[in-house]
Write a structure and sequence with these properties.
Order of helices and strands of chain A: EEEHEEHEHHHEHEHEEHEHEEHEH
Strand content of chain B: under 5%
CATH class of the largest domain in chain A: Alpha Beta
Shape of chain B: globular
Helix content of chain B: over 70%
Largest interface: A-B, 41 and 39 residues
Largest sheet of chain B: none
Radius of gyration of chain A: 24 Å
Number of strands of chain B: 0
Oligomer: heterodimer
Radius of gyration of chain B: 27 Å
Structural class of chain B: mainly alpha
Structural class of chain A: alpha/beta
Order of helices and strands of chain B: HHHHHHHHHHHHHHHHHH
Number of domains of chain B: 3
Distance between the termini of chain A: 38 Å
CATH superfamily of the largest domain in chain A: P-loop containing nucleotide triphosphate hydrolases
Strand order of the largest sheet of chain A: 6-7-8-3-9-10
Shape of chain A: elongated
Helix content of chain A: 25-40%
Chain lengths: 316, 489
């Protein structure tokens, strides 16, 4: 079921066309990474989605509700985490969330329960009495996520949530995202830390100059090579000549480069066969040929390389 | 044991502004508030000690001590409290705070009012803390308790009005512009309030008769300023233009009422004109709203609602009509109140309307962006005034008729009318000025009407969409249950 539909939206600020005919659809329960260089239009698109801004043209629907026609309903369905966030002085964490609970229209015991729930979920319950403006960057991000979760939204839009976090805080945040996905939330996340987006997200959406340049699964992006072939890294205990002999008898497979400690095979794609099936067959063949394979895996490319390649540059 | 039944406490909780709760939690813990509270208490204790010492020594003249008391109270209520409001909304501009609030169920209006109420509540707390000293003053100072209490309440009300204005100004992001407005506004209003205070000592009975109308019109001005502030950061589907115009109509009503009550009471009418200037100017700078939500309350009322919308919908087209109608109502009120209008008055009114429409029509056809529309209109008007002043100066020295070169501009002719009294029928070329400005006024109206057609089409489209949304919403609500929060983690 499509939960977010962005249809040919445009948004300009003066002469700068921030979003330029962007269209995409996101199904319920997906975790989508939103990738683009600085100034590509990521934050503008997200602000349009959460009803903080309106497009000059085009249409955005969240749960089949148009953002322009039903902004109030959409705000109840969507949680927003901005890239820059500051809590309040003279107010502890619990009071901060209590205020937003009131602002979201929660009352009495229901509000208290909900605040305690989100505090527990984000592992902030031990910090409930800490001043909200005296938290570390990671804790502040978790507080911001807790605030967004107060209204129990179906869709979470997170703008650069991992920016500025130390490795430990990043891992904690990644775990939270996974937990949210397990609860059936749809997550739309922008980030500059592409490797983490690759791990967290099952779909990736690249934009450049306000236009979509790629939309696909994270896996397809990691394994897709520009030559269209499958690349495999191989190590075996046998001497190299045995492998060379084996390769000579197989025209669709070539050895790439001269690496001392491993072998990279380039396998031509066989028609419509799924790459996984082709690779499984290849491994079976190698074993059947008596080669003692102890490492065999498909070569992934870094998301950074994919990003540069998609945007028209050269992979590193 | 529960203090209130659940239904009442739920009802109260729904209506109690969350911003008020937040601001009070933050405000009373802030160092600034604690410091002010303690200083006021310490000063009051010293005041009492000195008062008792004077009484013990047989002194009977407590006027200096009395003045000291009111300077402290007035300084806090009219100085410090409004200054606390000057950073109320600008502090929320940091770290996406306002945006995060706007995405909840809080409207921009509730946010601004919450900020204001919280500061007024803090002021009230301090005034309450002063009450024991007021009682003790009665014993040591031989002053009337109820009179002192009344003055304190009037000061509190004046403070609430001033604070409302500073909270509204605090929405401006640029500190330079904000402080410029605060200083200029302060220079204008503080002396007026001090005058009011002095008057309150001397003519308590007159003041008591006038104060409700003055406070009412001041309160309406605050409400208007709040709408302006809320409009600066509200999402597109919130309509602040209609409330602004309704408040202005109320100000007109209060102005008319005060005029009928007492001819000398001019303050409510001055405040109406300030409001009128701002609302008209602001209205001309706004395009028609492209959000169907804005039109829904009007569409709900059917034919009558849509007709009212022609006056009250956001956008410059309805704003022009509204400004002209309001101006007409004001004139009608004057005539109805017994004022007579001569030819000169009618000519000035005609020139005023021309001065209002002509620059706007020109900028509309130039196709200027809305962002700097207000500023451009101000500079254009200023230019037209300066042109006539310069031409008039040349005329004075050269005995020529250079001012005729600007007869096409109603603004310039109005300036000439004021400077040289064009009311004098013997002045040369008088008819040329009057006819040329009248023709330009008529042409401006036609030009504005032509440009209003696309706006009208947009309004009709939005009305249709609003009707459709209403029907879709009611159909959805009758089928789907509202979203329910998770009951367990």
């Amino acid at each position: 079921m499509t939960i977010i539909e962005v249809d040919n939206i445009y948004r300009a600020f003066g002469r700068v066309q921030a979003v330029n005919g962007l269209s995409f659809k996101i199904d319920a329960g997906q975790i989508v990474g939103f990738i683009g260089a600085n100034g590509a239009g990521k934050t503008t698109t997200m602000r349009l989605m959460v009803t903080l801004d309106v497009p000059d043209a085009g249409r955005i629907e969240i749960c089949n509700l148009n953002t322009l026609d039903h902004p109030h309903e959409i705000r109840r369905l969507i949680g927003w985490m901005p890239d820059h966030f500051e809590a309040y002085p003279n107010m502890d964490v619990w009071e901060y969330l209590d205020f937003y609970g009131r602002a979201f229209g929660l009352h009495g015991a229901e509000r208290t329960r909900r605040v305690d729930e989100v505090l527990a979920f984000t592992d902030m319950d031990v910090l409930a009495e800490r001043p909200s403006n005296a938290l570390s960057k990671g804790q502040t991000q978790r507080l911001c996520l807790a605030r967004a979760l107060l209204s129990d939204p179906q869709v979470l839009v997170l703008d650069e949530p991992a920016a500025g976090l130390d490795p430990k805080a990043r891992i904690e945040f990644k775990n939270l995202v996974k937990l949210l996905a397990a609860r059936g939330k749809t997550l739309f996340i922008s980030s500059h830390i592409l490797s983490e987006l690759g791990e967290m997200c099952d779909h990736l959406l690249f934009i450049d100059n306000g236009r979509m340049v790629h939309h696909g699964t994270s896996e397809s992006l990691r394994f897709h090579k520009s030559d269209g072939h499958l690349h495999v890294r191989l190590r075996c205990l046998d001497e190299a000549y045995r492998l060379e002999q084996w390769l000579a008898a197989r025209p669709g497979i070539t050895r790439r480069g001269e690496q001392a400690d491993y072998i990279e095979l380039v396998v031509e794609k066989a028609g419509d066969a799924p790459p996984e099936a082709q690779l499984a067959a290849l491994l079976q063949e190698l074993l059947a040929a008596g080669l003692r394979v102890y490492e065999f895996h498909r070569i992934e490319r870094k998301l950074e390389d994919a990003f540069v390649e998609i945007l028209g540059g050269q992979p590193s | 044991m529960k203090l209130l039944p659940d239904s009442i406490s739920q009802w109260l909780a729904r209506r109690f502004n969350p911003i008020l709760v937040k601001e009070l939690r933050q405000g009373v813990r802030s160092r600034a508030y604690t410091l002010v509270f303690l200083i006021v208490q310490v000063v009051m204790v010293f005041y009492l000690i000195f008062g008792m010492a004077v009484k013990e020594s047989g002194g009977s003249n407590n006027s200096e001590l009395d003045a000291f008391f009111w300077i402290i109270v007035g300084g806090f209520l009219l100085g410090i409290l409004p200054l606390m409001g000057s950073g109320a909304l600008s502090s929320e501009n940091r770290g996406s705070r306002l945006e995060l609030m706007v995405l909840t169920r809080l409207t921009a209006r509730r946010i601004v009012y919450g900020k204001w109420l919280a500061i007024v509540a803090q002021g009230t707390l301090i005034v309450m803390a002063l009450l024991p000293y007021l009682v003790l003053r009665y014993y040591i100072g031989s002053v009337e308790f109820h009179e002192s209490l009344l003055i304190a309440l009037i000061l509190l009300a004046a403070s609430a009005i001033l604070t409302g204005l500073t909270v509204s100004v605090s929405v401006i992001r640029s500190p330079l512009v904000r402080w410029f407005l605060l200083v200029v506004g302060g220079l204008w209003t503080i002396p007026a309030l001090i005058g009011l205070l002095v008057q309150s000592f001397r003519q308590m009975s007159d003041l008591l008769a006038q104060i409700p109308l003055i406070l009412l019109s001041g309160g309406l001005l605050v409400a208007l300023a709040m709408e302006f502030a809320a409009a600066r950061f509200s999402p597109i589907e919130e309509n602040h233009d209609t409330p602004k115009r309704l408040i202005l109509l109320l100000m007109l009503l209060v102005g008319a009422g005060s005029y009928a009550w007492d001819d000398d009471l001019v303050m409510p009418n001055i405040l109406f004109w300030i409001g009128f200037l701002f609302v008209s100017w602001d209205g001309l700078c706004r395009p028609a709203s492209a959000s169907p939500s804005v039109y829904e309350p009007f569409v709900r009322l059917g034919w009558a609602g849509r007709m009212a919308g022609r006056l009250l919908y956001p956008g410059w087209a309805s704003s022009v009509v509204f400004s002209l109608v309001t101006f007409g109502l004001f004139l009608f009120g004057l005539v109805w109140g017994g004022e007579t209008m001569g030819n000169e008055d009618i000519e000035i009114i005609r020139l005023l309307i021309g001065a209002f429409l002509f620059p706007f029509a020109v900028l509309l056809w130039v196709g200027l962006g809305r962002r700097f529309f207000g500023l451009s209109m101000f500079l254009f008007q200023l230019g037209l005034v300066l042109i006539m002043v310069l031409l008039h100066l040349f005329d004075e020295f050269g005995h020529t008729h250079l001012t005729l070169a600007a007869c096409w501009s109603p603004t310039s002719v109005l300036v000439l009318y004021i400077m040289e009294d064009l009311g004098d029928a013997n002045l040369p070329y008088r008819d040329v000025y009057m006819i040329a400005s009248l023709v330009m006024t008529a042409l401006s109206l036609v030009a504005i009407a032509i440009k209003a057609f696309p706006q009208r089409r947009l309004v009709i489209r939005m009305e249709k969409q609003a009707r459709a949304n209403r029907q879709a919403r009611s159909a959805r609500e009758s089928v789907v249950a509202p979203p329910v929060l998770e009951t367990s983690s």
